[in-house]
Specification:
Strand content: under 5%
Order of helices and strands: HHHHHHHHHHHH
Helix content: 55-70%
């Protein structure tokens, strides 16, 4: 029991070490700036609409962002860039590995991917609320703006509505709090799904293969989740849009040809478990290659 606690503590230390590298990592800084700019592009039209008309919008906007296949694709692309080099073996890792051991060091990478997925999700939601801040109010209900734009999207004619549109079916099927927390859990799970797939293929084959595989899956998800894909091959193709399972709109019953959350979640958890177990075994058996600047 004491050895198990020691391993867990060492793994948490290794995960924290990766987070502490963020402040001096230009990749993380650039990703944050790019995502802020993209979020502004996606949401500023709604802010302008509310400010110009004296309206207040409530903070239940996250479920509608994930309803857009293009926005979902961009979110997955940011995750791919964030986890592209997993497992993260830069020049500082040998010193950490000497103190903690190889197994604890790798489990720290696993914990880091879960934590970084949550941080990116919260950063994304916070960025949306930041852009909407000039017109942000609060109510436990959807509010007049969201319900009004769901019924009549033409009200925002003349404003940029590229990535944020309000699906009336989502409003009818879910309450605001239920839709938001379910979307957060689904999106967090999908974010980890992307990270662990990259980790698995990078560890099993070689660095870079994980990006190729997940990039292909992201492109397929965009096609399978689009109207063109469903018109060409039928609604069943929605079942193969794995990276669209982070959205309530990508799951049954909102998307009739897709799978329900009760099916999607166990499948993702099973694949994640396999990726973690196999990656851990392979990493501990193989020689570790450390490269300067890989993080």
């Amino acid at each position: 029991m004491r050895d198990l606690l020691r391993e867990a503590k060492a793994a948490l230390y290794c995960a924290g070490t990766n987070f502490r590298k963020w402040y001096r990592n230009p990749t993380i800084i650039v990703l944050a700036l790019v995502w802020l700019a993209y979020t502004y592009h996606a949401c500023h039209g709604l802010t302008d609409f509310c400010v110009d008309n004296g309206y207040y919008i409530h903070p239940w906007v996250l479920p509608f962002y994930t309803d857009n296949t293009h926005a979902n694709f961009m979110y997955i692309c940011m995750l791919m860039l964030l986890f592209a080099q997993a497992p993260f073996c830069d020049a500082t890792v040998p010193f950490t590995m000497i103190r903690t051991g190889k197994l604890a060091c790798f489990l720290g990478q696993v914990i880091y991917i879960a934590g970084a997925s949550l941080v990116f999700l919260l950063f994304h939601y916070g960025a949306m609320l930041l852009v909407l801040a000039p017109a942000l109010g609060f109510s436990p209900n959807w509010g007049g703006v969201i319900e009004g734009l769901a019924k009549n999207p033409s009200l925002m004619q003349g404003y940029d509505t590229t990535s944020l549109k309000f699906n009336p079916q989502l409003i009818n099927d879910y309450g605001p709090w239920e839709a938001t927390w379910k979307t957060m859990l689904l999106l967090w799970l999908t974010s980890m799904f992307v990270g662990y797939l990259i980790l698995f293929f990078n560890a099993m084959v070689k660095p870079g293969v994980g990006i190729i595989v997940t990039g292909g899956m992201a492109c397929w998800t965009m096609f399978a989740g689009s109207v063109h894909g469903m018109l060409t091959y039928g609604e069943w193709i929605s079942k193969t849009a794995l990276f669209y399972w982070g959205s309530l709109s990508g799951l049954y019953p909102m998307r009739s040809g897709s799978v329900p959350a009760e099916t999607a979640v166990p499948i993702q958890l099973a694949v994640i478990a396999v990726c973690i177990i196999v990656s851990t075994v392979l990493f501990c058996r193989k020689d570790t290659i450390f490269e300067k600047g890989r993080f």
